[in-house]
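[agent] plan:
  1. take the single chain provided in the ticket
  2. run structure prediction with default settings
  3. attach structure tokens to the ticket
  4. add a short note for the reviewer (M.T.)
[agent] executing step 1
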Amino acid sequence: MLTALDQEIDVVTGYDVGADDYITKPFSLIILISKVNAFMKRISSSSSSTADNIITCENLSFNYVDNKLVKEDEELLLTNNEAKLLKYIMDNSCQIVTKDQLINALWDIDGDFVDENTVAVNIRRLRQKVEEDPSNPQYIKNLRGVGYTFAKRCIKK
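[agent] step 2 finished; step 3 output follows
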């Protein structure tokens, strides 16, 4: 946080709401740059271990940071929407996820209206990449009138 509020309670509140650092005005530009650089190094070193970013299920391995899906040793690139959708349903594998949950979690973040057809279209595109036979899915199953489920148990590494 970069703020003019410099009282002790303000600093404590800033950290309580999730700030990684708290800088009050006036501030030194070189110190701000150093703090940002240190933060970026921490972020890149913590995300450089790709093993922490992989969800596996049978012959599928999904690196959700790089949006890469490996299916039987073939690497497939996913769009951002496909990657968000796959991560969400794999994180909730063997559970029913409703269309409303998907819309709220993945598309309606900025208050943009998205209809249920958006979910169906993105599920269809994702099935074409994930499934051997998209018309007879083994992973991403539709529960008519309820939602979707990733039918196999996934493991997050």
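[agent] step 4 note for reviewer: Strands lie at 2-3, 23-24, 54-57, 60-63, 68-71, 74-77, 97-98, 140-143, 147-150, 155-156.
[agent] ticket updated
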